[in-house]
Amino acid sequence: MTPRESRPTSPEHVSVHPLHLYPAYASSVKRAPHELLMPLPAALRDPGGPVFGAGRLRPDDHDTTRNARINGEPIGERILVRGRLLDSSGRPIRGALLETWQANAAGRYIHTGDQHTAPLDPNFTGTARMLTDDQGEYELLTLRPGAYPWRNHANAWRPAHIHFSVFGRNFTQRLVTQMYFPGDPLLAYDPIYQGVPDEKGRQRLISRFDLSLTQPHWALGYRFDIVLGGDAQTPLEEPDHD
Amino acid sequence: MTEPHPARAPLRPEGSNIPARLFGPSPSQTVGPYFHQGLVQHGEQSRFPGDQQLVPGTALYPSERLTLTGRVLDADGLPVPDALLDVWQADLAGQRVDETVLTGFGRSDTRQDGGFWRFHTVKPVPRAGQAPHLDVWLGLRGLLTHLVTRVYFSDEDNAADPLLLSLPLQRRGTLIAVREDVPGGPLYRLDIRLQGEGETVFFNVY
Fold first, then answer.
1. Which helix (H) or strand (E) holds A192?
2. pLDDT per residue over B90-134, tens digit each?
3. Active site residues of A
4. How far is B179 from chain A (nearest CA, A)?
5. Mean of the per-residue pLDDT values for chain A?
6. CA-CA 20 to 30 A from B192: which of A41, A208, A242, B177?
């Protein structure tokens, strides 16, 4: 691996986020800033953030197995992804917008730019939108995406993943991340996943198979919590016992 | 068969994919090259079109409408054709921010010829001693972690803005969009330069 440069951080804590310049991810070389990030003092930050009412969502927005049907059901392994959106103190974030997009079960995006030879699915776009409820919970019904090849290096394949875009309580909490699947052998070779410098941080991006969320005769259940912003703190929850 | 209703038992902490020993912020990952399918209009197949209009066309809002536009340039000065910009504009004086007046939120991308992003809005109201500005969130293929910057306006008095004053003098101009008077209202232009000469100031908000 390439040695990591130091990255600018605020004095209080070290960022969990990847460096901008990460040469193993080839696209970063011409697009990463060279200058240090400048501080934006909390006192000068704009309050609040976008508010999305439930009125902007349609009933099947959270369900990619239904929201793009043309002449039948999309083909693939149904999965139910449930999780909580939390702040850095472990408290739920309510009424937050999550947007997701992903490849289909064959590893092909509906996007016009994707020229991978895997088949498109006429009944699947792989896009979803959800608002977290009063417990900070969301629920996504979708198909497990396939791995897909890309041109970053010889024989490069992205692990199966679902892109998540999240709005927190204010603009600076905005996060775009990716959800991965447990046990995926491609994670070890993926510079996007490996670009996260902290091992614990990388582990947070892997969903957990959960039999209790699995719907009999319907869909496998996965748990994927997302934590936004700030220092890592002990959550105000009972300790887990995994 | 009929679809069962998913069990709605509350999620318990002990079932989390982030056990207590791993607790901390979820790291950023790139938006990748295909974000359009989920986040901005994608031909006829989009269910969730992006929104370049921060002020709905029907809004009876008295302020002058303006267009804000520019490109995102890489280290070689080439336009980046797959960038995503979210902008956030703080509240209007005395106006409730809602979807009938001003959403406060806009989203654009750079797929058009020339790689221009574009927003239609009104001039933000000065707040807390700061010059009028918009917050900008920038994501693109090649950035594992997104960038945050700001846009100010060349025809405003920016001399006393505390954030601009905190920056090196020669870099302040990278945040100031330049006004041009064209038919259809004022147009403000600003190119975001990711790397190299004239590199845009980006902020650390974490």
1. helix A191-194
2. 755 444 445 455 667 888 999 888 999 999 888 888 888 999 999
3. 109, 148, 158, 161, 163
4. 24
5. 88
6. A41
- pTM reported for the whole predicted model: 0.91
Cα separation, A229 vs A175, in Å, equals: 8
- What's at A205, amino acid-wise? L
Separation CA B164–CA A44 (nearest Å): 11
- Cβ burial of A153 (10 Å; 0-12, 13-18, 19+) is exposed
Interface A:B, Cβ pairs < 8 A: 301
B205–A contact, CB cutoff 8 A: yes
Whether B141 sits inside 8 A of A129 (CB atoms) is: no
| B189: helix, strand or coil | strand
Residues near B176 by beta carbon (within 8 Å), at least 6 away in sequence? B151, B152, B153, B154, B158, B190
Tokens at B72, concatenated: 């995102």
Q: Are A76 and A108 in contact (CB under 8 A)?
A: no
Average of per-residue pLDDT across B65-84:
96
Dihedral sign, Cα of residue B154, residue B90, residue B93, residue B100 = positive
Q: A5-20: per-residue pLDDT in tens?
A: 434 444 344 679 999 9
